[in-house]
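Researcher: Last one for today. Full complex below.
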Amino acid sequence: MRLGCVRCGSAYPPDFKMFKCPRCGGLLDVVYDELEWSPRGRGVWRYEGMLPLKRREAVTIMEGGTPLVESTKYPNAYIKFEGANPTGSFKDRGMTVGVSVALKAGARAVIVASTGNTASSMSAYASRGRMAPIIVVPKGKIARGKLFQSFLHGAHVIEIDGYFDEALRLVMEHGVEAAYPLNSFNPWRLEGQKTIAFEIYEEVGCPDNVVVPVGNGGNIAAIWKGFKELAQLGLCRGTPRMIGVQAEGAAPLARAWELGVEEPLWVDDPNTVATAIRIGRPVNWPKTLRAVRESGGAFVTVSDGEILKAQAEMAQREGIGAEPAGAAAYAALRKVRLGGTTVAVVTGHALKDPDIVDIRTHYVDSADKFLRLLSTIIPGT
Amino acid sequence: MRLGCVRCGSAYPPDFKMFKCPRCGGLLDVVYDELEWSPRGRGVWRYEGMLPLKRREAVTIMEGGTPLVESTKYPNAYIKFEGANPTGSFKDRGMTVGVSVALKAGARAVIVASTGNTASSMSAYASRGRMAPIIVVPKGKIARGKLFQSFLHGAHVIEIDGYFDEALRLVMEHGVEAAYPLNSFNPWRLEGQKTIAFEIYEEVGCPDNVVVPVGNGGNIAAIWKGFKELAQLGLCRGTPRMIGVQAEGAAPLARAWELGVEEPLWVDDPNTVATAIRIGRPVNWPKTLRAVRESGGAFVTVSDGEILKAQAEMAQREGIGAEPAGAAAYAALRKVRLGGTTVAVVTGHALKDPDIVDIRTHYVDSADKFLRLLSTIIPGT
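Model: Here's the assembly. Have a good evening.
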């Protein structure tokens, strides 16, 4: 096992505390000398032979093993519903590996700059591993409700002046000595997320297309890495096209892709209802672009209107309640009509973001009115 | 397959539209002439041979297959985390069977009197099955946020004057002609819930104790039925003691149990933070009492203070975020010190009830203060 730099190609012995290339500052990837496909048990650690640690070293809440649901609307399409993870998002797959690595590295605290799914998931796993979860957030910019889950899981919440970028800078410049950082630049964390590919493979083989919402871009890169490893082992013949989905108001990578530019077009004030992908400067962009390019994939953008419509449609046609960022993947199914089998990765649960829907009710004050109302709801009765 | 009356013992041919004994009005149980243990695939329908329908007839979102997590605090204890179901509670197991039965019975709409997990789950499954979900609720007594999930899944929400009992009466007296009722008296629905026992059995064998929160009392009865069927097939040697947990302010069955009374002591104004078990007149009480008695089990009560403490402790020691009703099972682990292996069934996700925690934060305005704060959070750094 070694760490390889995505930018300059340098290789290093595995180091749980190395987060970027010492030579060029590029992102790192975990590279294995030997992979072993021997699925056993359930969830992420079912794929022990493809992961950097042993099952017995894992801080686990039995994450993964999520539903792969056949679409009732789109032929040959499946929804991989990551909302059914322990804290309600795919982040749990990364955190079981990332937090286990932190523990093995001797950390006594884990830190992230995040307000959302990353913070909630990290807090749950760090607490289970008896390490202190610390989250750094911009003051006054986050609804209290967003912090509920992290706080329940024992997070120490630190507010600072400024924006998210400042929070991340504070963590990286001053936090890493005291606490182990698990933002998505951490290459170990992404290893857990690639198991989405393994589970898809076990249920439907290697699909033709995999559609993934893109914020910081770590997840699509991780899933692509998973499929490449399956191909390397001769298990997948072909590999899927990776389709990245961004919200129109937060589309630094999709815009660059459209224009044929090799670097993202930073968005300074990203704006979308899909908070989990409201990212203007995606940390993992080199990995993300590589995944889409290597796989012969593409980027798609969806509007907030399309996202909300897809959220309702998925809830009502498929029975799956997704957070808006997750619904973005479903929205993309309408836009990209690709041949073959398609899997849409729906990244988080509707309950993560319960304030979107405007609730309407009926009122009746007699059995007669009740029956009349029923007959309008169910014509012919 | 037949329906058997729990009260008078009468037996009837299977009828998807029979909800109580035509002779005595008692609750019904589904009884099989032949059970087949041949697990295949994942989730509830893995146990097709133990269920009343075939997998190909199922309206499914791949529910079940939830984490069984080893406790870090209680030796020989496991947490069965039902919050990791598609709509965030164990109700999904019942609804995949109940809604499939409704579809097979030719229903065009499904109806429940409920505001909580039952309504959310029913709405998701009915919508997926192309039937109209209808929920009946007391006007002015439910926070709008509670209806979010049902509404997202396309529920028609009907408000009436009066209490929950009136809502249920309206459904039963006037609704069942037009729509298929799936409140917990429905014996078909409970068949799905027994698969909790099957999954526990496959992972740790037959445990010595199973702790289950009790509201209407259907779930503990269903899980007990599952273990009895395993024993009947010779798979389990012994059967577990079933431990029912009620909140102090909503304990009609636990109080009766303590006093050695054979019928529940109705609670007219049930009161607890654990809304999912805030039930004063449990519909399934004869089944519930039978499960606890037959199994050599017991009832326990827990206070709201104990429930909230257990919720925080479970989130921070185990990494599992539960709604208060689910945390009641964890609270009971402290109270009942039973020998052998114990499984606590944690029924729903923390995100179902996000308003409990009072969030505290720190504020820093310099890197120095940040480091000082970190050193108080992580002593010795």
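Chain A has a mean pLDDT of 94. The two ends of chain A are 66 Å apart (CA to CA).
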